[in-house]
Amino acid sequence: MEKKIIDISMELSNRTPQWPGDQPFYYGLTGTIEETGSVNVGEIRTGTHLGTHIDAPFHYDNDGLTIGEMPLEVYLSTAQVMDVRGLDEITSNDLKKPEAGVTTVLLRTGAWRDRTKFPGHWPVFDVSIASWMKTNGIRLLGVDVPSVDQETSKDMEMHQAMNRNGRYILESIILDYAEEGVYQLAALPLKIKGAEGSPVRAVLYT
């Protein structure tokens, strides 16, 4: 049977909005076929938390794992999409019991409607979600907004709760075309030595 693939990644372009103050994305050709005589060659410049990406614990913990140390099986997993649209705050009480074999939960908030602009607000993710994940054997949380914490947060309560419970984070996914249900997820990071985050190409497939 042919796989059905749903791309849940943001497109990276010079219009992709970055976290305020971060390095914007840039792609351009440094050499053309006409110039080199054989090939087009390009370069990219980007922040590590731009577009669809994962956070390594080193992002919020100086002693945490870096991207190159992350357990890859977390990002090749069975995922359950849960619809939590319309909520200003999402707690563990708003989440469904995971199906058997699920180790990733992806939350569809629907809060980021215009992906050409950085959103002004998104729902609060309550720290109870992190302990709920540990209790239910869920290792990875994916959200369709830029962060599991608010833009102005300095104490990073949700990030720190995830860290205390040994859980991992995938941010800025797109779930517009993913109905509630169970899928296979692939969202592997780049192998960047010492990094605190990495863009990913995240896809769901059945």
Description:
By secondary structure, the chain is mostly beta strands. The protein has one domain: Glucose Oxidase, domain 1 (3-Layer(bba) Sandwich), CATH 3.50.30. Helix content is 10%, strand content 26%. It has three helices and 13 strands, in the order ββαββββββαβαββββ. The protein has a nine-stranded mixed beta sheet, with helices on one face. A two-stranded antiparallel ribbon has the order 2-3. β9, α3 and β10 form a beta-alpha-beta unit. The longest helix has 8 residues. It starts with a strand and ends with a strand.
Output the CATH topology. Answer: Glucose Oxidase, domain 1
The major pleated sheet works out as:
9 strands, mixed
Which shape, going by the Cα principal axes? globular
Q: How many helical stretches? A: 3
Structural class determined from secondary elements: mainly beta
CATH class: Alpha Beta
- What is the count of structural domains? 1
Strands in their spatial order, largest beta sheet: 1-13-11-5-7-9-10-4-12
Q: What percent strand?
A: 25-35%
Low-pLDDT sequence parts: none
What labels describe this entry?
206 residues, mainly beta, Glucose Oxidase, domain 1, 3 helices, 13 strands, 10% helix, globular
SSE topology:
Elements: E1 5-7, E2 26-31, H1 33-36, E3 41-45, E4 53-55, E5 76-83, E6 89-90, E7 104-108, E8 124-125, H2 128-135, E9 140-143, H3 157-164, E10 168-171, E11 181-186, E12 197-199, E13 203-205
Parallel strand pairs: 5-7, 6-8, 7-9, 9-10
Antiparallel strand pairs: 1-13, 2-3, 4-10, 4-12, 5-11, 11-13
